[in-house]
Amino acid sequence: MVAMTAMPDVLSEFETLVSQDKPWRLVVWNDPVNLMSYVSYVFRSYFGFSPEKAEKLMLQVHHDGFCTVRSGSREAIESDVQAMHGFGLNATMTQGA
Amino acid sequence: MAKAFKNGSKGITGTLHSAERKLIRELFSDLIEMLEERARLHQLPEDIDPLYALTGMRPESMDLPPIADPALARLLPDASDDAVAAAEHRRLTEADSIAQKVGRLREAQLLLETDRLVLDKDAATRFAQALNDVRLVLAERLQIRSEEDSARVAEVLDASEVETPEEYMSLVYNLISWVLDTLMGALMDAES
């Protein structure tokens, strides 16, 4: 972790502007129905993730209850959510951290 | 009894026997009916602005009603915790999502007209999506809400011991889960 030595001097209007541009996140939620093999395959085939990365994210969903799979523009994440619903995964979009 | 899906030189192959195929096809039909009933709510009034009529887009003032059936809601979930964002996403994408799901379910129904299935990767993925949609609906009817519920349902494996409709539904759910799991194994194999 990097220690901050001074507070940045930022105008409040600027902060508002920045918060509107915060990226959107695609969150996939755990459920007791979708098979682990299925979720892992969806991550591989739809996002093009490596088998290792797909497996890691799938296990994160399974153990933590959810996982941010990726972030991006509102349009991109909207279309990801729709695709995840097409696969029957529980997914939502959310802005910021 | 069904045979596991495998990846081989001809593509992804698997076998489902007549009684299993009949049963799963009926389930595909039930889902198509549920989705098409919802699709009828999407019809725009005849006196609507021709621009909307032409594009099929819904005006902002015409959000869709919430889904009452939890099984249908599981197929078409909210895209956001934020109610306004969820309603907007639904207004813009739901008709399209329904059409895609119905298309895959119809394709899957046709595939089950023969015992032996031979699929390429894309067709196998769409078949997996259709099977998974059936699982989601059965799981909702069986009230699978936790890992414990899931374990309870997974215990029903012996057809000769099935007595109640719920046990029968559990048996069907387990059969489809097994078929899907073998299909995912074959798909993973085809991918690597």
Automatic annotation (TrEMBL), chain A:
Residues 20-90 form the Adaptor protein ClpS core domain. Signal peptide: none annotated. It comes from the Bacteria. GO terms for molecular function: peptidase activity. Keywords: Hydrolase, Protease. GO terms for biological process: proteolysis. InterPro entries: ClpS (IPR022935), ClpS_core (IPR003769), Ribosomal_bL12_C/ClpS-like (IPR014719). Gene3D superfamilies: 3.30.1390.10. Binds to the N-terminal domain of the chaperone ClpA. Involved in the modulation of the specificity of the ClpAP-mediated ATP-dependent protein degradation. Belongs to the ClpS family. This is ATP-dependent Clp protease adapter protein ClpS. It comes from Glutamicibacter mysorens.
UniProtKB/TrEMBL annotation, chain B:
InterPro entries: AosR. Pfam families: DUF2017. This is DUF2017 domain-containing protein. It comes from Glutamicibacter nicotianae (Arthrobacter nicotianae). The lineage of its organism: Bacteria, Bacillati, Actinomycetota, Actinomycetes, Micrococcales.
